[in-house]
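Lecture notes, unit on protein representations.

Consider one protein chain, 330 amino acids long.
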Amino acid sequence: MKNILAFIIFSLIVSTSVFGQQKADHSSINKKTNHSDLKSVENGISFLVIGDFGRHGAFTQKEVANAMGEVAEKLAINFTVSVGDNFYPNGVQSTQDYQWISSYETIYTHHFLHEPWYVALGNHDYEGNSQAQIDYSNLSRRWEMPARYYEKLIKIDSDNYVQLLVIDTNPFVSKYKKDPEKYLGINDQDTQTQIKWLEDKLSNQDAKIKWRLVVGHHPLYSGGKRIKEKETFEIQEVFEPIFQKYKVDAYFTGHEHDLQVIKNPGKSFTQFLSGAGSELRPTGETKGTMFAASVPGFMAFSLNNHVLNAYVIQADSNAYQIIYQTSISK
């Protein structure tokens, strides 16, 4: 009888402890999820920016993908941008590589994540068959990479557009060009032709273009691992004067496995670094840092002809949290 009574008391203690713990966990989730702060602008469009993600669902890729689906539905997004390093560690080998299934198709499954993906190439994508990622555009209804660099004019309303320019920053990194056995086809890329193309596109003075947004894998600035690395200065030296000359509004990038927002004094553009799609690395601050965090997540944007609202989103297994937000006004 004593044994039965002891068992009943022990069971009640365990049940109370577990229930209390569950209640605390749910309270924490509700506190983190400030969905009401996330909204699309009137008469505009919305989109997500993700980078450095393709790891067969490992690390935090699945958690980030789930949060992306929730945010995509909340904003009724029009498209997603990938800033590159789409498949780790060595890109894909062909359009039939199983990584298309294990690292992309079965991960980003939410209905709103089947809107177009405008995709850039990262350095890890060059370690495989980068042409296969271009060719996959012919097989997929959502993956769009018609070339290594390209322009998309996206309607805001019946009269006005966003100019989205996706560039290939990889051939501008000297250490990659010195290792063509690792970075396949890197020396076949003509950087001067790409620069001329970029300047030709940005020089379009059509008044209907309300926003000039550029996408590339390598950042111009970073407070992370590559804060003082040669490749960061190489990219900055080439692209900063161009972005400034043509008054680019924003540069979306990755490469660093974190989330950063940087606006250097006197520059026309804000750099949004969204590279926290799976594996993370420590981050920090640099000149112009507005925000930096090494947490799993991505960024969301909503714009119309007059304002661009940016949200930095942290993801976990149960919720998403807006951890920073800013706006650019016209």
